[in-house]
Structure of P2X purinoceptor:
Amino acid sequence: MMSQISNALSDFFFEYETPRQVLVRNRRVGVVCRLIQLGVLAYIIGWVFIYEKGYQSTDTAVSSVFTKMKGVGYTNIEGRERVWDVADYVFPPQGDSSFVVMTNYIITEGQKMGKCPELQGKHNCSSHADCEGGSFKRTGHGQMTGVCLNATKTCEVLAWCPVEDDVKIPDPPMLMSAVNYTLFIKNSVTFPLFGVSRSNLVENIDNAYISKCLYDPTDAPLCPIFRLGDIVKLSGFKFETIARVGGAIGIVVDWTCNLDVDVKHCIPKYTFHGLYGNAAETDQARASVGYNFRYAKHYLEDKEQKRTLLKVFGIRFDIIVQSLARKFDIIPTLTAIGSGVGIFGVATVVCDLVLLYLLPKREFYKNMKFKYTDSHVQDPDSEACSTETEVCKVRDLYISITLKPICLVFRTADVLFICYSCRSDVGATF
Ligand SMILES: *[C@@H]1O[C@H](CO)[C@@H](O)[C@H](O)[C@H]1NC(C)=O
């Protein structure tokens, strides 16, 4: 018993089996096979390794963005001069990666709680019955008191009075000067897998440079200071339109880095996209154009609470950081090589098909490729065929079709062979 086990073990360890190959001297098969192998090689080297960089592993960054606006606006409405600085036109003021720059507004000053007439238009009435007391209109400004005012022919409401009249959007925009405001973006990214941190203030971008540079896609692609007019233009919109009704623009900071080369080549790339609406569409085609919101400043005057209401039209900027770093890694390399070797098997399969099924001398090659066992010794699995059989020839990949009972034969190649009958006289039709 022990010696049997040790024999089996020594057989296992000290023997090696390798498949026997058949060398076929045939130009057609040779050329087909080499062409396919060449194609597979080109795919693996050209596409998988060079183009898709299959030898690298990838990681995306965690990132943080700060922003800062600079610039001053000026308005002169019927002799009332006013200057708008950053604290007046940026919402919210913290320097988020998403913020709004006010470019146009409708201001309603000195509102206080009280009763006053609704706007004309949607809220017209001809009698008190049209203004049901205690109810609201969805588009109204307050709660209706049940009174239809004679002077204006509109319902009276309990609301912040006087109610805001936002029917007419100022044109040209009140703060056209926004075109010259500048936006400073600070962005830092970390690729945790590779332990690499970068900031958009890369090498050569120092204080002296920042103090005078302005982003330009060709002349200053790394300057982190952007003129709003340029951003809007690069996103494909017209500043006049977007400033009047508002809009949304995405600034994409793209960090696509190959960390196999020096880290100083890992630099950001800025692109600009309109996030709402299509620059090519006409304004009329859009159902709800623009971007606006309301904002109120409350104060006390003579112990009475009052507010200033601003309907703000502005450009909303969303800074989106997109990142992908790559670096050499042994595991994806081996995976790519392994799958490449596997695809080489395709060449073998195709060439075998050509050799065994298409060539005129296929019978000759078949005989050379397959070694037939002389099976006078009955295979127990093919019992069903045994009655009328003399020889049951089961060939790799062949199915012999005849009339007689069915038997299934499994071969080592894990291929299921179906041999309907094993009668040697009829059984040779393939
Ligand atoms: C923006 O700046 C340019 C150059 O300084 C100036 O010519 C232009 O009038 C400014 N535009 C606005 C709307 O202030």
Summary: The first helix runs from residue 2 to 14.
